[in-house]
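Appendix C reproduces, verbatim, an entry submitted by the partner laboratory led by Prof. M.T., so that reviewers can inspect both the input and the predicted structure.
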Amino acid sequence: MSEIAAPLIAWYRANARDLPWRRPGFGAWGVLVSEFMLQQTPVNRVIPRLESWLERWPTPAALAADAPASAVREWANLGYPRRALWLHRAAAEIRDRHAGAVPREVDALLALTGIGDYTARAVAVFAYGDRHPVVDTNTRRVLARALGGRSQPGPPAKSDLAAMAAVLPEDEADAAAFNAATMELGAVVCTARAPRCEACPIADLCAWRAAGYPDTGDDRRKQARYEGSDRQARGAILRALREAAAHELPQSAVAPEWPDASQRDRAIDSLIADGLIEATAGVLRLPH
């Protein structure tokens, strides 16, 4: 076991937040849905949507039997609504390829729509208890500081999985706990802008702290501003259709107050291209 693993696991088992997907018996489908929702979305926004989603669609087959428009509506304000369509498609694939049960094998999970390296391994580890490295933004930051002595990690790379695998405990239960603990530490203690090193269980082992907290730069890609962006325009259009009767409106009545007409039209075109809305004879609607 690596030097940082034991204190991190002990800290996590004593201090982990009580989150729905961490509770015994939550199930692989619940874990998969939570992982889709948590991508670039804060936990406090995900929990109510997750509970509502699983109450309505407790199994992949239940979601697959409903219309894609229902998934887009239920996604509400989570952002990146293509994830709702991807999750709907993945549910149909689970129903058709895996007899309705979320697969356990990483390769089978990777073959589902919308699932990449992180989500596939997160489901295999947190739903089934298998031993794999799980790497998210928080994990990468903790490893960059504790082991690499850097203030911020570099851009995501395939080598991140190898770096986590190198410090992963051999025992499956400890490996799962270490994966979760590293993510948790990055989320609540070793944060990007204001790390609380006085509360860190591995502060005495941290290479960045030992070096005097040097600013080694941050070459990660910066997220574009949301206000006034195409993303905001897309969100306004989807919100109007979710709230409309029958979830459809004449195109001229969708977000008519948007200050940039060309941006609004560009957002409509991109939503159609993504399959998030449909257009027929000047009428926009959520997908059927």
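The chain has a mean pLDDT of 93. Additional entries are available on request from the coordinating office.
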